[in-house]
Amino acid sequence: MVKSFEVTELPVRSAKFIARKQWVVAGADDMFIRVYNYNTMDKVKVFEAHTDYIRCVAVHPTLPYVLSSSDDMLIKLWDWEKGWMCTQIFEGHSHYVMQVTFNPKDTNTFASASLDRTVKIWNLGSPDPNFTLDAHLKGVNCIDYFTGGDRPYLITGSDDHTAKVWDYQTKSCVQTLEGHTHNVSAVCFHPELPIIITGSEDGTLRIWHATTYRVVIGYDEGTIMIKLGREEPVASMDSSGKIIWAKHNEIQTVNIKTVGADFEVTDGERMPLAVKELGSCDLYPQSLKHNPNGRFVVVCGDGEYIIYTALAWRNRSFGSALEFVWSSDGEYAIRESTSRIKIFSKTFQEKKSIRPTFSAERIFGGTLLAMCSNDFICFYDWAECRLIRRIDVNVKNIYWADSGDLVAIASDTSFYILKYNREIVSSYLESGKSVDEQGVEDAFELLHEVNERVTTMFHLDRPMYLLGYLANQSRVYLIDKEFNVMGYTLLLSLIEYKTLVMRGDLDRAKEILPSMPKEHHNSVARFLESRDMLDDALEVATDPNYRFDLAVQLGRLEVAKAIAIEVQSESKWKQLGELALSTGKLEMAEECLSHAMDFSGLLLLYSALGDADGITKLASLAKEQGKNNVAFLCLFMLGKLEDCLQLLVESNRIPEAALMARSYLPSKVSEIVGVWKKDLNKEKKSIRPTFSAERIFGGTLLAMCSNDFICFYDWAECRLIRRIDVNVKNIYWADSGDLVAIASDTSFYILKYNREIVSSYLESGKSVDEQGVEDAFELLHEVNERVTTMFHLDRPMYLLGYLANQSRVYLIDKEFNVMGYTLLLSLIEYKTLVMRGDLDRAKEILPSMPKEHHNSVARFLESRDMLDDALEVATDPNYRFDLAVQLGRLEVAKAIAIEVQSESKWKQLGELALSTGKLEMAEECLSHAMDFSGLLLLYSALGDADGITKLASLAKEQGKNNVAFLCLFMLGKLEDCLQLLVESNRIPEAALMARSYLPSKVSEIVGVWKKDLNKINANMCCLILVNIHESRGNYPPAVEYLSYGERSNINLVEAFKSMQVDEEDVPLENGDSGHEVTEENGMEEGQEEAVEVEADESTDGAILVNGNEGEEEWGTNNEGTPSA
């Protein structure tokens, strides 16, 4: 465990990372959401989010949004850039909301799963769901979107023990996954592999194949980490260098030949290949293989195969097979089972069917068709399927040479190289002789058997997989699991040369050598050296350094000398000189040591020879080169004592000169002692502080610090400038030399160095006490425990420095990786001036600051409640809109909304205009936002019949039938209301309305209702009746509707103007209509009844008679069937 956070004593049901902020957000049963910084472990925010247990939190992938769902049946949207303000509430579920998740392909939409048995798809800009899936027979616990690019799927898990895969575009169930024996509590799609994972309260986790929906594994009890898929990429390369690979179902191709001529191919370097999309595959590829001429590619997987054209990726043939292999001439064979093998021609027609007499566990292609059992392999010819040879060996793989005459059979512990005797086999078969169960006896000839011998050709830094070898490039190509391709040089001529040398056939080996590139000759030479063939290695090698070493090993000094002249390396001259000296070649030794400037070696040589002239010459040369020790020894050996004494004085070795004069030249003692005294009297500055100087610091002044104070000194005279009582950790001087930062363990101080005051004080000749010059420093700032996070780092970094001309600070890590961050001094200066209250100077600095930093400045100003200035500085339209709304500057906000054209902004602005009484602006904004609920509230409050008429038409066009119905009802257009209910397939509600308001229409509507009921199957009707029985008491008896039979039509706009609203209205229950028509008790005959209309602005209007709140697709209840 890396870190642990103590959140609350109650269960924490959901926690998510917000990586771009280094946060963890968690929701718990105490109804609070908490946000932590997972680097510093600080608590960033705590707030009460819901009125019941929080089930799930979901983080938007790009915007500053977090969704939360709860047992209070609500979903809430939180914006952390607005101080974690709740910006939207989504209502519609009638039971606990168990999970919410964003759609990765359309991040403006999200899905929610609830115990009301439904899944709802929502849009961030609307409080109403886009649509509802009646997902399961019991509550839905979990939901997840498919992240792949090819299918619009989501998966749900339920208390009905099943998981279902849905197509959210067609709103249909694609597959039901059955197998769990208890509630399914977790579901997910694998982000890359075609795998579905489901977890259940039955204690098992099941992994399903997303194509066949078959169970792969299941396990009970405990936690285990499992590995899915395989590391080896599915790829194939043809003989021309074209590579095809499969990334899941997507097929891509690259061509090695497309690498530009200007790119120098280096062994082990990733090749910059242009990837081209070929198409997709109908099955999930597990293997790819080109046919021999590269025209076709076979894709195998899930017990099937498909043959495609390599260029256009067109399907040419397909079928079922456990294995597929190509022949060397384009035919192919498939293994349907262990007892049936089929051979197909080049035209994809079945040619032969074989039933081997043994269990064929695997097949291999090539020159011959091979079938292997567990302990032997049989080779057959492709034409007649005749047995060629049986070989008793446990086979792992088979590799045929391009010539078709050699084959390598690999087992677990060794491999065998065999020669296929094509002529012997042909003549045997043509003779008509019978072939026994062992086949043709001399069909193969064993050439080599290789056991556990390994030669390292290249060192790889990660697992790589073999693609193939291109002989015309002499390169072998590898691929890694990330589909990076790289090549390594592998010369067949080099391998052949080494083979001939090992066989002792040196003459043929020398014939091959000229055909080998020069850059590989050194490799050949090292191979020859390893076999003690040094003369041949010297002849082949091209590297001068390597040839020099070989010549020295062979004692061929003249060859080594010629190489040393060519290379001109002191170390080689010295090595050759010592070798010549040891072998008695003195003239060569002298020459070599002279070239090497090896004065010690020359001194040894000349002294051994007694060569005074050589020593004299060496003394002069050594003195010129500053080798005074050798020069002294040469002069001393020649008896030139005065020259020795003079050399010691000139090299400032005066004490040694005095001792030598006393020993060898007494007459020079007084002179040398006088020189020594003068040297001792030379002025040397030094300071002996009166305290224990634990550390010193450089800069404009020299600083020495003790444990609890620091003293500053000038560099010229080492005079005390000032003592400051502070425990110092470090000191940083500004480039100007006038500012210094003194850092301690808990704070730091910014001081100004008053250079003029110090200079005038010292020039006055006044004495300086132990505290120094009183006004030498002026304290500007003291910073205590105030930290501003400028950049978030993913690992420890260390400060290198700041480059003002680049406005960047540079950091380095322990691996010596250097990185830079922008740090504007102008931005820091601006903030400093604002904090000081010097706004005029701050405004002068602002134009010099890059535009991309203006939003940062604006947020700083907002944090200081300077909203007007922030609005003036900000450049981001969304941020400026928020500021304008906060300031109540609606015209500015309107101009931004026109520029951005965002429905959410128009709606927000419309609501603000409505609350401030700016009705014209409110109408305009709500119209732009298509906020029909807001417009209905506005027009009904104004009694604007024309507005309501226009809104009814617009709402009907947009499919907002609830709002359209309310508008028509308020206008008294009851027949239009009835027609709208019928058109939107809300026939039961139409029948009830006709019974209540339009009795003349009852028979017509009942007839339509009967036709509609005939479309429903019996089982669904039973389920509907059960639901009605469970909901008994939610609706008034049908008798009460009779009182409305003779009522006259009424214009509800007029009624709305004169209606009385009670102080204590009873809130609507779930499922009740959003409008309520009541007939007051004691009403006299002919008296108009009071009518109350309520519009809930959180939806498109009130729900009609037995309707389902939030559904825009009328005519379906929660079970997906017409209402009854």
TrEMBL record:
Stretches the record annotates as Disordered: 1065-1124
Biased composition (Acidic residues): 1079-1099
GO molecular function, one term: structural molecule activity
Every COPA/B TPR domain range: 497-677, 830-1010
UniProt domain COPA/B second beta-propeller: residue ranges: 248-457
Family, similarity comment: Belongs to the WD repeat COPB2 family.
Protein name, entry field: Beta'-coat protein
Organism, scientific name: Cocos nucifera (Coconut palm)
